[in-house]
Amino acid sequence: MNFQLTEEQDMLRKMVRDFAKNDVEPTAAERDEEERFDRGIFDKMAELGLTGIPWPEEYGGIGADYVSYVIAVEELSRVCASTGVTLSAHLSLASWPIYKYGNEEQKKNFLYRLATGEALGAYALSEPGAGSDVASMKTVAVKDHDDYILNGNKVWITNGGVADLYLVFAKTNPDAKHKGVSAFIVEKGTEGFSFGKKEKKLGIRSSPTTELVFENCRVPKENMLGAEGDGFKIAMSTLDGGRNGIAAQAVGIAQGALDAAVEYAKGREQFGKPIATNQGISFKLADMATAIEASRLLTYQAAWLESNDLPYGKASAMSKLFAGDTAMQVTTEAVQVFGGYGYTKDYPVERYMRDAKITQIYEGTNEIQRLVIGRMLTK
Ligand code: CAA
Ligand code: FAD
């Protein structure tokens, strides 16, 4: 067993940390306030190779591993959780399934464009009546000669509106629950595909979350990923890895909040001494740091398992569950350490606390992670 990062992983961490500090953090609060997505940040990530971290060079990637990927999401989220999820949704939700299930032509076209950052990706599974219960989705795709005609609505889509390629799940056989779902790659600008409501959110406000509307949207059959009826399996196996990306986001948010809390506790004086010298505060910081380290280890372990072609679904559900709960606890405590100042926008901890909440909800709520883990334990 070796807990040391490789030289490449360590170098990537330093590179992303510098990029996050210089190019992402300075505008994080302002983008949050204005609910503004910045495509320029994504373009810079592409220049650094971050948009294709785990894919082979022939598909436009940099041929690194999944540990490197989670390190990148962690470091970005340490300063801006919206930027962290932009990369996570692009990479593990939109690109991974094409790498895993795409034919050579789809990889050379769609995956290459995603990996090089020419295109930004999104993953469209959820619907107004089908969130946790994915199989009850209503969007349909009806075969018409060499095309499929899509009709229906997807909601809550991260990178919605700003993404160029959308992985959309629809029923090709509405009577067959799971086995009736198929997956399609839909390009922005396709006739019959438009954007609906953009959500106004509590946190990750510079990551757009948007409704997708399909009205007789004609998609060529070449854009189907896998075979007809493979969609549910593709969606679920994609989430197996995607959830670990959210765990990495949660670790980053929690670490950012702890860093801020430690600095503040050392500088803020009450009763004639820094508040950090009170055991009530230093024990709090110790518990926060310990929970973060445990979350990080679960997250890196799940990524290591995936990199080594070992089963990682349960590990990933556990990392997401534990790291998401940790992020919520740690950021709440960070606001507490700051006292009244933590409740204002003068310091970043209120943003971390608002951002942390989503890590318990998306890519399967933490109740659903417990359901997934429980089923794996007892099956
Ligand atoms: N990999 C491959 N196949 C899988 C699988 C997996 N991980 N999980 C289930 N399956 C297969 C099963 O083997 C089963 O196949 P058979 O019919 O051949 O036996 C089939 O799928 C049905 O499985 P279940 O009976 O377990 O399905 P279910 O209807 O009970 O649902 C669930 C299971 C885990 C609750 C699932 O619906 C789920 O994950 N819900 C949460 C949805 C979710 O996470 N959404 C995230 C949207 S993306 C997002 O939020 C983006 C963002 O954060 C940025
Ligand atoms: P519901 O499924 O209605 O759940 C409501 C409550 O009931 C939750 O607490 C849930 O845990 C609980 N519950 C439901 N079923 C059970 C059960 N069997 N046992 C115990 N408790 C249960 N989706 C995408 O497809 N793509 C995206 O890019 C995407 N990005 C998102 C970004 C944001 C900001 C948000 C808020 C959501 C995003 N989602 C996305 C959707 C997200 O995955 C869903 O919101 C989530 O899966 C929960 O579904 P729901 O909101 O319909 O809640």
From TrEMBL:
Chain ranges of the Acyl-CoA dehydrogenase/oxidase C-terminal domain: 229-377
Cofactor: FAD
Catalytic activity: a 2,3-saturated acyl-CoA + A = a 2,3-dehydroacyl-CoA + AH2
Entries under PROSITE patterns matching the protein: ACYL_COA_DH_1, ACYL_COA_DH_2
Molecular function as annotated in GO: acyl-CoA dehydrogenase activity; flavin adenine dinucleotide binding
Highest taxon in the source lineage: Bacteria
SUPFAM superfamilies: Acyl-CoA dehydrogenase C-terminal domain-like, Acyl-CoA dehydrogenase NM domain-like
Residue intervals of the Acyl-CoA dehydrogenase/oxidase N-terminal domain: 6-118
Positions of the Acyl-CoA oxidase/dehydrogenase middle domain: 122-217
Keywords from the UniProt entry: FAD, Flavoprotein, Oxidoreductase
Family to which the UniProt record says this protein belongs: Belongs to the acyl-CoA dehydrogenase family.
Protein name in UniProt: Acyl-CoA dehydrogenase
Naturally occurring in which organism (per UniProt): Oceanobacillus bengalensis
